Amino acid sequence: MENFPEEGELVLGTIKKTFDQGAYVILDEYNREGYLSLKEISLKWIKNIHDYVKEGQKVVLKVIRVDQERGAINLSLRTVSDAERKAKIEDVKRVQKEEKFIEFAGNELKISRDRIREILAPLEDKYRTIYEGIEKIASDNTNVEILNCDDALMENLVGLINRNVKVKKVEVSGFAMLKSYDADGVERIKKIFKGVISDKVIITYVGAPVYKIDVISEEYKAAEKKLKSVSEKILKSAKELNCTARYAKDVKELSQHEK
What we know:
Layout: E1 10-19, E2 22-27, E3 32-37, E4 58-67, E5 72-76, H1 82-109, H2 113-126, H3 130-140, H4 151-164, E6 170-179, H5 185-194, E7 201-207, E8 210-217, H6 220-240, E9 244-248, H7 251-258
Helix pairs in contact: 1-2, 1-3, 2-3, 3-4, 5-6
């Protein structure tokens, strides 16, 4: 049987019906029904299921079991992290934007949607999705030469992308506490930050000894990955330069530790 999600996959679903033991969910991308049990909504005691999910509500869920012979799909809400939820919602929106752009480009250039998709197909091989490739072109005209068409059509299509696709920027933040008791401590801290600062990584002084780290990217998952990498590099450099360092996503965590 085909058109089933894989175990561990994140899916977008619409709550179809709730009852005492859980809920039935329509998987939007597969047009199939799945089951969300009460224990997979929350480990806490649930007095009223409607405090967590309601009929008609869109939710991001994780597939925990698939039985294709029975047509059964078991789902989980409680195991989906906030980062996974945001990333999945971004993916769904990107697919919707991709379909809209293909239809728009076909109408503007007077060619079929299938031909537009064929022209853009190499972007899917280069990036994760066609629309990510479209956003990359809109950002800096990268890899336009891989489009599957002649130069004249490529120029017209890239022009459409540049005029109509706006690249959304995502920003994530964390906080680092840095201290040095050496005479050249200020210079050491500057050196630590110099190793990570770029046009997409911004360090802001909050107040001794706390600094805010902002990472800018085109998608949430990439921004979170970059923030993790930056924070690890800061902690490693601080240790090498004999500085005391801690990192947290919430500045309150650093403040509480100080107390």
